[in-house]
Amino acid sequence: MATATLLLRLVAPMQSWGTTSRFDERDSQLEPSKSGVIGLICAALGRERNEEIDDLAALKMGVRVDQEGVLMRDYQTATGVMRATGRADLKRTVVSPRYYLADAAFLVGLEGDSVLLQTVDSALHSPHWSLSLGRKSFPPSQPIWLEQSLHEHDLSTALMGYPPIIQIKQSKTVRLLLEHSEHGVVRLDQPVAPFSERLFGPRYIATKMVNLEANGCI
User: Which of 198, 210, 215, 150 is nearest to 20 (CA)?
Assistant: First the structure.
């Protein structure tokens, strides 16, 4: 099986990539979650929530943070939430904090089967359903699909060698997060079943700093 790396551009005024949300609070990580990115690709491919996603979950993911987002907290309320008895109380209203990232820009890479990635690349160019960045109310401000986005390089090389996806105003040194088989910070965002079952396992994330100018990207 030939392997390749596919690059995606995730830029929007608002993005949200929760991995630990339960009950009334909705978190967001500082970078795209793998479950969120795979969900986005499923929308592009037109896969239903109860369909298998083993092939997509097997892809190795990396993220280059071209612009850090500002973590913001949105005040919302929800009515009819579930009580400890297991029944919804339609008269009860609770505060439901929703976190999101403002003005973030990410270059995301997926490494794996080149045939599968060609299919994903075509779907992102002409998606089956509308695409959003973590929540349906957060559409991308620039196309997710990139020209010449499919590379023969490995994940790290492809991410480090691609030009900035936005104008770099300050530091040319950015964070690079790569999925690792044994080392790094644990994230519980690895899909292990169809999205309808809401089951996610752990994966390791290794982080390093990359100077885009030194890598010839600028």
Answer: 198
Q: What's the pLDDT tens digit per position in 2-43?
A: 999 999 999 999 999 998 876 677 889 999 999 999 999 999
* Predicted TM-score (pTM) above 0.70: yes
Query: Reduced to 3 states, what is the DSSP secondary structure of residue 52?
Result: coil
- How far is it, in rounded angstroms, from Cα 78 to Cα 119? 39
Amino acid letter, 103: D
Cα(14)–Cα(132) distance, rounded to whole angstroms?
Answer: 10
Strand-pair category, 70-74 with 60-67: unpaired
Contact between 97 and 73 (Cβ < 8 Å):
yes
- DSSP annotation of 163: P
Angle between helices 114-125 and 34-45 (to 10 degrees): 70
- CB atoms < 10 A from the CB of 216, how many? 9
For residue 218, the surrounding DSSP H or E stretch is none
Among left, alpha and beta (phi > 0; psi -120 to 50; other), residue 132 is: beta
